[in-house]
Amino acid sequence: MRTQLFHRTIGIAASMICILVTIAPVSAKSKVNDQNVTAVSGTVTGNVQEVGFRAMIQKHAILYNLAGSAENNTDGSVRFTLQGDNVRIKQALKTISKGTKKSSNVSVSTSSAAVSQNLKTFTVVGWTSVSRGITHPYDLVFPLRNPDTVIKKGEVKAIWLKICDSAVKGEDTGKCDKDNAD
Prior knowledge:
Elements: H1 2-23, E1 29-32, E2 35-47, H2 53-64, E3 67-72, E4 78-85, H3 86-98, E5 104-112, E6 121-129, E7 134-143, H4 153-167
Parallel strand pairs: 3-6
Antiparallel strand pairs: 1-2, 2-4, 2-5, 3-4, 6-7
Helix pairs in contact: 2-3, 2-4
């Protein structure tokens, strides 16, 4: 009798585990290099194009060492993905939701995204700059740092300027640093 009760209890427990595994939501998390990696995709609406929004997102990716991308949509919104440490992503999203000095009516919506094990860069796709007079689109690519670290805010601008300077060509050369413009 005890053996039957034991086997029946084990069978019920196994069934419950199967049910829980089946209904539990799949999280967009992975473990890479002993670090919990999360990915989110998002859309930002409002006055968010031609105001430095994608560059601001990239600068936070540089600060927090996050992979992903940012790209303008034809409807005037900005689409982005962020991948990396969950706490760092939340910090970046907090700042993204505040917008840039020139943006307005900023609204951010996000959802979980699949983690891409091979994603090791953050790219601003087709970047231009009205304030710098850069009208030819360039892809600005930030390769993740190894080891994975957060840097000081003061270091971000220098890294971003190197990325910009290495991407722009021809008549756009020398236009990345607005502070040193002629």
